[in-house]
Each structure stands twice: as structure tokens, then as C-alpha cells.
Amino acid sequence: MSRDIRNEWFPVAIAAMLPAAPGRETLLLGEAIRVRGEDDQPVVETLGGRTLPVKIAYGHVWTSLGEPGDLFPLPEAEQPGRRLVDVGSVRVKCSPLRAVENFLDIAHFPFVHTDILGSEPHTEVYRYEVQIRDEVDEVWATKVRFYQPQAAKSAEGGIETDYMYRVPHPTCSVLYKTSPPMPGEWDVIALFVQPLTEELCEVWPWMALFDDTSPMADLIQFQQMIFLQDRSILENQLPRKLPLDPGMETPTRADMTSIAYRRWLKRNGITFGAQVVAA
């Protein structure tokens, strides 16, 4: 069953900052919108005056150009003991789908995030499992393991880090990874992507961590540093849109999650920001 991209929820602002901020004009799927606070509540409208639906979740204001259903669940947002971190936003000159796909890529850690999320000679991507879970219509990658010199701000020394990746939304992805200070639990790092146009997006990272010691500013700075390292790679990828058809790019074993994501997008009829070969 296909999904209409206009009926999806998208992040457009950090909820905590909205009441004190003036109206913010931005784009969503190529349409100009305005985000503002009114009586301590967010209001989102098109510049033509149409009021759009609004939801506050996971530290952000979400809206839709259509008739959205439920937003995907993130129960970790309600779990006691976690620190919820609104990282801010980064504008990237790439397809919103490219931004999500890059987040799913494990193999680039040693080369782009050297001595932090990866290092040479630890470049091997171990075999892992990927599936499209039909019952929830999500892509999941499990049993992912990678050596990381500094897996998180709270990590002291290199560790073998376990990962799970989840794609519950065409432009959002959730990463579950080993929590250095809380063995047996997962730290959560989510990437919420606002599609401005087909080749431009605003990326809103968000985290739910077990970390009682790091200053909030350090947690934000660490995650922003990681994503800014990715931005230069993303902005130089060609084609700018994400190819959905087999044969347009050559995959490797490390690209299993990317392949499943592209297959899932194609199955759901998501073409905004995608490169599709004409029939």
C-alpha cells in the first residue's frame, strides 16, 4: 500500500524554543509555511493562511500538509532516567532521503568519523540482519556490531558497539546503540529530517541518553560535530536525489540497510527526493 508523503508528520521547530521565538518562515515539501507561537502553543500555517495540523513530540513541533495519522512511537522518550537532548538543526544541500540513507551507513565510520565512531584498521562491517517488518511497515537492521574509539560522549576508551537501526518514517531514522554507562540498555539517537525541497533539507537530530555526567552543551556539541562531518559528504553525492532503481548504484554487503530502505520507499510510492528511472 502506497503512502502519500503529504500525509506524513514532519519536524519544523524545537518545541522549547518556539514561545520565545518570532514566527519562522520555512519550507515543507516545497511549500512555504510559517511556524509561530500563540498563547504558548505552536501554530503552523501556509503563507496563504491555511492552518496546518500540529503535534508536539520528542522535543519538536511536527506538522503536515495533508491528513496525518499517528506519529511513530518512541517509548524511550518517556523512560525514566534518560536525558532528552534537542540538538538543533543543520541545513544540508541534499535530498532528504539521502540524509536518512547516510545515517544508515556503517561503513563510512572509520573514514568520515576517524578516531571517534571508527578507525583504521577496524574497517570490517560484520554480517548483520535486515528486514522490512510488514506488521509495522518499518525497516529494521539488527545484530550490527562495530568497533568505535569513542562511541559516545560518555565513553572512555574504545569498545565494540552494538547497533540497531530503525526506519519508521520516510524521512526519519532511529539508531539504538550500546549505552557505555548503562550496560543492557540502549542509547537512542534519532534523525528527524524536514524536506524543504527535493534537494534541500533541514536535519533535526534528537537523543535519549543515559548520561548523568556530561554537560548538556557537550552532548549537543558532540552530536553536531558528528553530523557536520557528514554534511560535506552528503553535499557532494551525485546524483543529489536518492536512486531507487537497482543498477543505478553498485551496493556492497555493508549497504544491506540502504537497499532495504530504497525497496521500502519504492514499495510505499515515496518519490519526493528520489531519482526514479522513467518507464
From TrEMBL:
Leader sequence segment: none
Molecular function in Gene Ontology: dioxygenase activity
Documented EC number(s): 1.14.13.-
Pfam family, one: VanA_C
Stretches assigned to coiled coil: none
Keywords: Dioxygenase, Oxidoreductase
Residues of the Vanillate O-demethylase oxygenase-like C-terminal catalytic domain: 92-267
Claim: Ligase is one of the keywords in the record: no
Record-given protein name: Aromatic ring-hydroxylating dioxygenase subunit alpha
